[in-house]
Every structure is written in structure tokens, then in C-alpha cells.
Write a structure and sequence with these properties.
Elements: E1 7-10, H1 17-27, E2 37-47, E3 51-62, E4 74-83, E5 88-97, E6 103-118, E7 131-146, E8 152-167, E9 187-200, E10 211-221, E11 232-244, E12 249-261, E13 272-273, E14 289-290, E15 292-305, E16 308-320, E17 331-343, E18 348-356, E19 367-373
Antiparallel strand pairs: 1-2, 2-3, 3-4, 4-5, 5-6, 6-7, 7-8, 8-9, 9-10, 10-11, 11-12, 12-15, 13-14, 15-16, 16-17, 17-18, 18-19
């Protein structure tokens, strides 16, 4: 691919022989004590639009009450980077479980100023139509859920987002006449009021070996801001099932569906986008976008030793305009990966995946490399 999809090289620096020995001892140790952990990692990345990226990524994992043996691990994630071409991002996420798992809350705050490639709308866009756009984005959100039964958590949430776009290649597909129906090209704002429903029988929320997870979200965006700003509805369903095939081998499955609806023209940036480091790996986020998005994926996870693992995964997905299920243009996603577990108690890992997708006519096969924290789902 002309553009490296999302490539991050994580460098861990050790000074002196004693420090190197500690890392080796840690890698092959079997310490599973309940403790809080923090992993800060230097981040170096590269893309043609952003140039070289420099920053840090980290995850803090902890128990709200260490004496509660049933409590799930909470995590706070943070990412900060800048680049040689002025790209910047600062973001944080929180996933918090209270004592006894009676309350579950999610938080997010993000600022980004990042170029991205726009290819048009639908599931048959072309690489040659690639058009560089710069997006400035502010996003904040929160959800809180209360346990009603052992596995059932209903909840509510709010979300606000403000986006601004600038076309860096005048005369490209973003400006063409057949794209004149693109609504709100300069950007817009919206606020979601959300209702959430969670069914969760997993034995762990960080490295699941058995159980079911089902999250349903409905978001309503009132016409707070008028004009071309989005108002309408967003429906999201995320279903996951996990089964241990033996002591070291786990089968993980996921079905994902999203749909956007409005009585007004839908801004192009609200359309669902295929591809990221979690679902439909291998596809550039936004290469294909439309009103509906469906994906199915399965993953085999094998723990070679407590500190190291490997995976193989595959799936299919599609974006499409009408109907509940896609009738055509299903696209493949498959690949392999490795895991390095830095916290055995919570089974938290550094994740390395390489994925392949379809081979569009006249183009190279779509593919992507991902280095991240935690499992893909």
C-alpha cells in the first residue's frame, strides 16, 4: 500500500545488564498476585500524511477494592503524540468497575488533529480516488450502568462531538460534482443521549476464556445545533461468545452491527466506517462507509507460555445502504498475531496483529499492521 495503514513501533529501552535481566525474568515469571499495574511505552509511528509520530501510550490497570475477589479489573488508557507534519492527538479512556461489580462506568475524552484519506461513499470505492482531508475533532462521553441481576446492567449515557474538515487536495473526489450530496463538508456538532443494555457472563473482562457478552446501545441526537448538524438515531449491537477448547486454547467470536438513521441528510462523517485495530482488521478506517455496518469475526487464542501467546483470526464484513443484512459486497478479513502478557493477574497484553483483506480489481491486496494494548475484543 502507498500509505502505511496504521504502523506503530513500540520501543522498550533497557539500560545496563541488570535491567535486561529483570525484563527477561519478568517475561518468564509466573507472578499472578493481585496488584495495580502501569505500563508506559514510548510510541513511534509513521504515515505519509503525518510523517514520523512521537509520543507515549500507557495503560493503568487496578482494582477498586483489592480485597474483593469477585471485582473485575478497571483500566485507564492514555495516548499522546505529535508528528513532524503537525499531527497531534491526546486521548484518555476509563473502564471502571465498582466493588461487587454493582456499577460499571465508561469515560472518554479525545482531541485529534489528524489527516485521513477520503475515498467516496459505498462499498466499491477506488484507491486512485484517495483524497487527503484534515480532521480536527473534539469528543467527550460517559456511560454508567447499574447491576440489576447477576449478569444484567441497564444504563444511560451522553456523548458530544465537534468536527471540522479541510480538504488538502482541491479538485479531488471530495469536491467532485458526484460528491455534491456530501452533507456538512466543513464539519459539524452533535450530542447523543444514550440508553445502554449490557448482558455479561464473562469470567474476565480483560482475557475472557468463557462466557457471553452482549451490549446494545441506542443513541438519540436532538436537533440542538440546527442547520446541517446531525440529528437522528444510532443503533449499535455488539455480541461476543467465548469458549475454552482446552487449557491453553480459546475460541472467541464476535458479531457487530451499527446503523445510522435521520430524517435529514446524514453528514458524511456520521456514516459507519469499516476497519480499525479491533474489527475488520486490515482495512483503512473509512475506505468504505455507508449507513449500515455489519461484521462477523472469530479468533483462536493460544497461550504458548503464561507470558506469550499467538492468535489466528478471520471474518467478513460489509457497509451497505439499505436493509438489516447486506445482500452483497461482503469483504474478508484474516490474519495472525502475537501477544506479550505483562500482567498475569489480569492477563493484560501488548498486541501485535497483521491482517489482510480483499484484493480490489487493479489494486494490491488490502492489509495492515497493528500494535496495541489488550485483546481486539
Amino acid at each position: 500500500m502507498k500509505r502505511i495503514f496504521y504502523t506503530i513501533l513500540i520501543l522498550t529501552i533497557s539500560i545496563g545488564a541488570s535491567a535486561q535481566k529483570k525484563i527477561i525474568d519478568k517475561l518468564f515469571s509466573s507472578d499472578t498476585t493481585r496488584h495495580n499495574s502501569f505500563l508506559p511505552v514510548p510510541l513511534i509511528g509513521f504515515s505519509q500524511e503525518a510523517g514520523f509520530e512521537f509520543g507515549a501510550v500507557g495503560i493503568y490497570s487496578f482494582y477498586v477494592d483489592k480485597t474483593d475477589k469477585t471485582i473485575r479489573a478497571s483500566q485507564i488508557y492514555g495516548v499522546a503524540f505529535t508528528s513532524t507534519k503537525g499531527v497531534s492527538q491526546l486521548s484518555g479512556k476509563g473502564d471502571i468497575w465498582s466493588k461487587g461489580n454493582k456499577w460499571h462506568s465508561l469515560y472518554e475524552a479525545r482531541f485529534s488533529n489528524i489527516p485521513f484519506n477520503f475515498y467516496g461513499l459505498g462499498s466499491a470505492t477506488k484507491k486512485d480516488d484517495e483524497d487527503l482531508i484534515v480532521q480536527t475533532r473534539w469528543r467527550v462521553g460517559a456511560e454508567i450502568e447499574k447491576q440489576l441481576t447477576k449478569f444484567y446492567y441497564p444504563g444511560i449515557g451522553v456523548e458530544f462531538e465537534s468536527l471540522n474538515f479541510k480538504d488538502k487536495e482541491i479538485g479531488g473526489i471530495f469536491d467532485l460534482e458526484n460528491q455534491a450530496t456530501l452533507n456538512d463538508k466543513d464539519g459539524g456538532r452533535y450530542s447523543f443521549l444514550k440508553i445502554t443494555q449490557l448482558l455479561d457472563t464473562r469470567n474476565s473482562n480483560t482475557y475472557t476464556t468463557k462466557g457471553f457478552y452482549g451490549r446494545f446501545r441506542y443513541g438519540y441526537a436532538p436537533d440542538f445545533f440546527g442547520g446541517n448538524n446531525f440529528s437522528g438515531n444510532l443503533f449499535t449491537t455488539d455480541l461476543r461468545y467465548f469458549k475454552a477448547l482446552n487449557k491453553n486454547l480459546v475460541l472467541a467470536n464476535q458479531a457487530f452491527y451499527e446503523a445510522i438513521r435521520s430524517n435529514k441528510d446524514i453528514p458524511f462523517y456520521m456514516l459507519r466506517q469499516m476497519g480499525n485495530d479491533q474489527i475488520m482488521r486490515g482495512y483503512y478506517l473509512g475506505r468504505y462507509r455507508d449507513k449500515n455496518y455489519m461484521a462477523l469475526q472469530t479468533e483462536l487464542r493460544y497461550r504458548i507460555i503464561p507470558r506469550l501467546g499467538m492468535v489466528a483470526f478471520g471474518g467478513v464484513g460489509a457497509v451497505y445502504n439499505n436493509g438489516f443484512l447486506p445482500k452483497e459486497n461482503l469483504k474478508p478479513s484474516y490474519g495472525i498475531g502475537a501477544r506479550a502478557f505483562f500482567d498475569l493477574d489480569k492477563s493484560l497484553a501488548l498486541r501485535l496483529d497483521y491482517a489482510w483483506g480483499e484484493k480490489p480489481t487493479g489494486e494490491n491486496r488490502i492489509s495492515g499492521l497493528y500494535i496495541s494494548l489488550g485483546e481486539s475484543f
